[in-house]
Each structure stands twice: as structure tokens, then as C-alpha cells.
Amino acid sequence: MAETGEVVFEAQNEPTNELTSEPTVADEERPPLVIPPEVSRELCSMFGCTQETLGQLLSTIHGDPDKILPLLSVLAPSYVAVKVRFETRRQNEFAGALCIVGKGMSGEVIDEAIWVGSSGLPRTFTVGASWESVRNTIQELSSALERVSYKRIREPVSKVFSATAINSLFKSDENIAEVTSQFSSALTSLFHYDLVVEIQVERFNKTRLDSGGLGAPDAKPVPQESGGTEDVTLPVGDIRIACVPALDPVKGRAVVDLRPNDIVVVELQGGGLASILRRTMTRNGELSAFPVLAAEKLPSGQTAVTLAISEGIKGVFKTSPDLRVKLAPKTNPFSNDDGTLPLLVKMLVATAVAGILFLFAYILFLR
What we know:
A five-stranded mixed beta barrel has the order 7-9-10-11-12. The chain has a four-stranded antiparallel β-sheet with strand order 5-4-3-6, sandwiched between helices. It starts with 6 loop residues before the first strand and ends with a helix. The protein has helices at residues 25-29, 37-47, 51-60, 68-75, 131-140, 147-160, 163-171, 176-191, 206-211, 273-283, 343-366, and strands at residues 7-9, 33-35, 79-88, 95-103, 109-117, 195-204, 239-245, 253-254, 263-268, 289-297, 303-310, 313-319, 324-325. The protein is flat. By secondary structure, it is an alpha+beta fold.
């Protein structure tokens, strides 16, 4: 680097290794690329890389300025994951975890996973793990989620981890201590517990964002039908989500015996819309179960089952016809799951009986 602070790159005529592209005649004839210091600092600040890294990237593309921004936008860390763990000093009293994924420079939140409960976090859980594993673990803990605490904690999370806070954490680890102190104070005033809070920050590039299922879904061409392909025919415009049915070898129903309106418990697979639906149902405490639209036998002997998730959204799974899948109980306002009458119905019946007895007493003794 020159004394003026400019980043100077001269195309090398030496052979490159297999990880870099071979220099062309245009590369050899291109004059040295000089990046002004203010532009260099802006690029490094924008993509979170050092000037040495910027120089290495320029060497890889042989100083072609048209390739700088696309390459940096893919390889340089421009996203941040804030991984938080908090719990009381006494075990199994109160604990929680969250993973916030956002854009580093704007602080815009792309995804967040939150769990709070009194059962405590798994012993092997650590915020030092990758943000993908932390996020997946939090989502798997949804069965023990405390709904009331979850609703209460959302406000301090949104206030403490604002766009400016996420940007400051993306820029430097020196800001972690201040954010930790603010979040600890907010939790203590809200829940009145002496909590230990741990925060770790992970910076990553767009490639990992896409591989983690949070990137923009790629447009995929619609496969053409062929004679040897097994598939489920859906109306044009319907969205199809792959599902994995929950198994119940004892009380479950065989797939071949499924009938329309049977409610099957499934797990939605994939990212994009499926990921959004999973998070929404988890936050609302809803069971991932949907009614059967149709069960179709395929030439291979398997059975393809289509579920009605929502209007224009269908769930599909293919499995052995003899496999027993778990069914969700159909809700009945006049009967509990065990066949007994709910308390409200009992109260109504008792009120009606008391009214009839009072009417007879009035007729017999008070007239």
C-alpha cells in the first residue's frame, strides 16, 4: 500500500493456482488499479473486511473493478447473529435463549428465535456454537415454551436489540458488554430474578445465510410431467410444502386407511414459507396438524397424502401405506379428549337442573 493510503493493484503475469481464474490478455493489458483511500475504507467498512483482505480479493479477480462488489457481497461477512443465553443462578428456576439474525450495516432483523421457560436449558447448550445450531436448538425447545413469559420478553428484546444495537455489535465486540448490561437490567426489572446473561456475536456472509434457509428463495423452474415420474397433482397456483408425518405405532392409523378430514400431525420441512409457518405455529402454541384432502396410491406402491394447510397452501408426504401415523384429536366443545364432559358443560347442566327444581318448588309450595 502506498504512503498516501491508496490501494494499488497490479495484475500479475505469473501463473495462478487452481482456486483463481487464469489471467486473460485483457487482464495483462489492464493498467494498475488504484483505489482511493476513502473508497478503500468505505468498502472495508461496508463489507466488514480488512484492507489486506480487500487486496487479496482484488488479486483473485485480477483487478477487474466490475467484479469487486459482487464478489465482496457474497464472500465478505455482511450479516450478524446475536446469540443470547440467560438463566437464574439456581437451576431449573427460570431460563431462556434467543438468536437474532440481521443485516450488519442496516441492523434490520431477518429472523429471531426465542425460548423462555422454567425447565432450564440443556446442559450441552452453548451460545459459542454456530448460529445455525443455536437457532435450531431454540426451535426444538418450543414444546416447553412458557407463553406468558414469551409475550412479556418480546418488548425488552425489541428495545435492547434495536437496529442501532445490532449494527454496533456487528462492527465491534467491544459493544457486547454494554448490550449485555442493558439486557440484564431489562430482564431483572421485568421478571425480578437475578439472571446471568451471556451474549456472543457471529458475523457471516450471504452464502451461510442462504445455506441456513434464511436467504431469498431461488426461482425454480416448474418440472415438466413425464410418464415415469410419480407426483401429486395440485391445482395451478397452489403452493406445496413437503411434510414428515409423526408416527404412532400403537394408536396411529395406517396411511392407507386415512380419510378426508382426518387430522394428521406432521412436521413442515424446508425453509422459506415452511420456516415462517413453523415459527408462527410455535409462537401461537398451535399443534402442527392439518386435515387430509386426499390419499392417492402411486404406481410404486406408496401412498401420497395431500393436506390442507391453508387456502392455496397444501402439504404433501409420500410413505408406505402400512405406516401408522399420529392423528390429532378432533376438537369437540361438548367433550374432552378422554370422553368426559368439560367443566362449562357441567355448570350449564347443573344450572338447568337447579332451575327446574326451583320451578317445581314454586308451583307446589309458593302458589
